[in-house]
Amino acid sequence: TSQTPLSALSADDLAARLTTVRADYDALKERGLKLDLTRGKPGSDQLDLSNGLLDLPSGLKDAAGTDVRNYGGLDGLAELRAIFADLLGVDAAAVVCGGNSSLTMMHQVLTALLLKGGPDSPRPWSQEPVVKFVCPVPGYDRHFTMLAELGIEMVTVPMNADGPDVEAVRALVADDPSVKGMWIVPTYANPTGAVCSTEVAAELMAMPTAAPDFRILWDNAYAVHHLTGEEIKSADALGLASASGHPNRPIVFASTSKITFAGAGVAALAASPENRAWYLERLGFASIGPDKVNHLRHIEFFGDADGVRAHMRRHRDLIAPKFDAVEEALSGRLSGLDIAEWTVPSGGYFVNLDVLDGTASRVVALAKEAGIALTPAGSAFPHGDDPRDRNIRLAPTFPVLAEVEAAMAGVAVCVELAALESLARD
Ligand code: PMP
């Protein structure tokens, strides 16, 4: 059944529909739901897939004979670096395996750039009058809060279906040396699910920048997190950068947070030889080595990169139905009303929902009152400021399927109610 766009309804029809949808909303509140779609966390059934880790490692040494219980090996176990290298499409020699959080590695890189500068910096970034970062929006809230915390200003560019808007980025970086870097989630971006094409990646790696030490933090958190049988390969950031004469521009990050245990996985970084040596030198003042017991556990659990890929298909079997439920709830109620657009991602952890301009905060408030917790409106923008107040990030992986269905049916009611209220006011 095709529905009439709400904006085409007469004042009377609008008022009648508002009455009906208010009744739907009251019925929703009556149900006393307590559901949470706020954070991209794995469900407990996903965590169970990796319970085998709890009985590992069975050995005490890696292939090179290193006793993993002892100190040392700052760059991580070689066999694990090889697995990350295969998954990320980089040389094993470029990889460092660290602790449990890639976000922490990004923070280390930024603080080192601020305090010491990179290998090609004229001076530490903190000695510049202003430091700015280009932020594709909507984007990952923790990237933005980290920059704000470190005093780095944010300038936004649109995130398109094939990656950041290259022309907008070029315009910001070409003449302003205070623009020192940018953040990209290249594959199945948080929250839009966009995949950065090789063409876009090549332009970003090759573009002229006024800052000689421009950095692209290439946060490939969802590199292998496919939701369909089409397992898209990420663009080769390091190769493209090196080919265009800017080998130090990108630093690649990833982790097993959404592969094994979100809180007890392994994070990795990959970079040019110069960047890698620079990172390890800084790290050497902060650590005598990573948790190699956990590294060995992961090596034994997976065997190789194909072991990871097979494991990711088991994740997909568990979470793809939840993404289908989001799509069915939204299109079931909202298709044709012309008040919302949403992504149908082929990977990653999120659905990006854009509602009628000016109504996102109202939708989140209505949902909250009905017992459905959503990520605060605007959180995918620097300082939580969505200039159009229309963006909502949905994270369907953590609740069980029946809860996703119930929550999303409720969200669809809230989206329609907020739109009707707004249209009835105009
Ligand atoms: N980057 C992105 C884009 C993410 O969505 C997340 C998790 N929500 C992270 C990084 C966090 O990674 P980690 O657990 O390795 O710190």
Overall CATH class of the largest domain: Alpha Beta
Total of helices: 13
Any idea what the CATH superfamily of the largest domain is called?
Type I PLP-dependent aspartate aminotransferase-like (Major domain)
What percentage of amino acids are in beta strands? 5-15%
Small-molecule binders here are: 4'-deoxy-4'-aminopyridoxal-5'-phosphate
Strand segment tally: 13
H/E series: HEHHEHEHEEHEHEHEEHHHEEHEEH
Total domain count = 2
Task: Give the helix/strand class.
Answer: alpha/beta
Average pLDDT value?
97
Give the strand order of the largest sheet, numbering strands 1, 2, ... along the chain.
Answer: 2-9-8-7-6-3-4-5
Kindly, what is the distance between the CA atoms of the first and last residues, rounded to a whole number of angstroms? 27 Å
Q: What is the overall silhouette?
A: globular
* Radius of gyration, taken over Cα atoms and rounded to an integer in Å: 23 Å
Low-confidence stretches: none
Per the CATH scheme, the topology name of the largest domain is Aspartate Aminotransferase, domain 2
Keywords: Aminotransferase, Transferase
Protein name: Aminotransferase class I/II-fold pyridoxal phosphate-dependent enzyme
GO molecular function: L-aspartate:2-oxoglutarate aminotransferase activity
InterPro entries: AspAT_Ic (IPR024551), PyrdxlP-dep_Trfase (IPR015424), PyrdxlP-dep_Trfase_major (IPR015421), PyrdxlP-dep_Trfase_small (IPR015422)
